[in-house]
Amino acid sequence: MKERIDNATELGQVPEEARKEHKGFQERDLVSSKRDHPTILQLRVSSQISNGLVILTVDCDMYSNNSESLRDVMCFLMDEEKGQKIAFVQFPQNFDNITKNDVYSNSLKVEFPGLDANGGPAYIGTGCFHRRDTLCGKKYKNDYQIDWRTENDRRVEESTTVLEETCKTLASCSYEENTEWGKEVSSPWVLPFLYVIAAKYGYSLGEFLWSGGTFQEWWNDQRMWLYKRTTSYVFGFTETILKLLGFVKLGFVVTSKVADEDVSLRYKKEVMEFGAPSPMFSILATLSLVNLLSFFRALKMLIMDSQHRVLDLLALQMLLCGFVVVINLPVYGGLFFRKNKGRMPSTVTCQAVIIAIIAHIVALH
Asked: What are phi and psi of 255, to 5 degrees?
């Protein structure tokens, strides 16, 4: 897939072989602009064809590994006492190729904190079975009872051609224009709410140990929690704001899924990788050095303080700063001690050192 995208980018157009495979590309030859194009439809628009009462959503690189999961879901949705209160049922994710202590916190071992008014989990985007009606805004009452047999007794009599044309309309980008649903979803006021939810995510040691994790795995998760909120979340927030203001367009970058032997070996040893120049590493390195200099400065003040005033005034600050220093030990190793290709690039190291020293000098004066 990455190679096909790169080829199309270099050519400046979709290759002829791909155009022949999908008739939607031939229809695009008749349009006058990028926004004026027919829907390329090679998928099943389920509301028009099957109208299934339950919808499974998964990421493009995931699948359900349990054929009985749907039966488990229906036990919840068809429960006579509480089924009408359940909008969706989602399952935890299982990941392959995870190290023992999950150095990058990829496994999402504890991922379902209660966020809504009833203590229920947020929808995480994959591995979830939804009631179709709830996605359409339908509300259920306590005395509501759905007739599953009647709802499922639906036949489609239209021809394939008619169905395809109908589904193109349903799947088009303009279908929701000038509707209450379209206005509500595209409203920028929902963004702060989403970021507040994302910022509340956190894992505790007890939850990790209870779910079969290790102390080191929990510690790695705390590190990645900090790193994500000082880098990728900031980048995402900034780019979203710039998009809303019309300065940039959001893009999708296909990352490489192939690692060389040295990278794989370091990953198996749970050694973090810093080998590529990145704004993310620049921020991490700078913040870690600022905290390190601040911690050393506080220690110096504590040693030279004969009246113990520093400890009374800065005890909590030193504790927090010390915690940040300890959690950033892999970064310090990548900056100054490692000699392999996974170390911090020299440009990132020099940049971080200069900025941290300047910030420290400014703070002292």
From this structure: -85, 155
Residues shown for the chain: 365
Residue tagged 């009408």 (tokens): 84
Residue pointed to by tokens 């359940």: 86
- β-sheet with 88-90: strand ranges across: 54-57, 128-131, 88-90
Query: What per-residue confidence (pLDDT) applies to 255?
Result: 62
Q: Do strands 128-131 and 54-57 pair parallel, antiparallel, or not at all (unpaired)?
A: antiparallel
For residues 84 and 69, which has the higher predicted lDDT (pLDDT)? 69
Helices H / strands E in the chain, number of each: 18, 3
Number of CB atoms found within 10 A of residue 213's CB: 20
Residue 184's pLDDT is 47
Neighbours of 284 (CB within 10 A): 24
3-state secondary structure of 70: helix
| Whole-model pTM over 0.85 | no
Dihedral, 123, 128, 129, 130 alpha carbons, nearest 10: 20
SS3 344: coil
Q: How far apart are CA 125 and CA 107, in angstroms?
A: 15
CB atoms within 10 A of CB 226: 16
pLDDT, residue 336, reads: 92
Burial of 161-194, coded b for 16+ CB within 10 Å and e otherwise, reads eebeeebbeeeeeeeeeeeeeeeeeeeeeeeeee
Q: Could you give the C-alpha distances from 83 to 159, 330, 349, in angstroms and in order?
A: 36, 48, 56
Please give the full DSSP string across 215-249, using - where no structure is assigned.
HHHHHHHHHHHHHHHHTHHHHHHHHHHHHHTTS--
Per DSSP, what are the bridge partners of residue 88? 130
Q: What is the DSSP track for 138-150?
A: ----TT----HHH
Per-residue pLDDT of 92-119, as tens digits, reads 777 777 888 888 887 766 655 555 556 6
Tell me the per-residue pLDDT of 22-76, one tens digit each, with 9 for 90 and over: 666 665 555 555 555 555 544 546 666 666 788 888 887 777 888 888 899 999 9
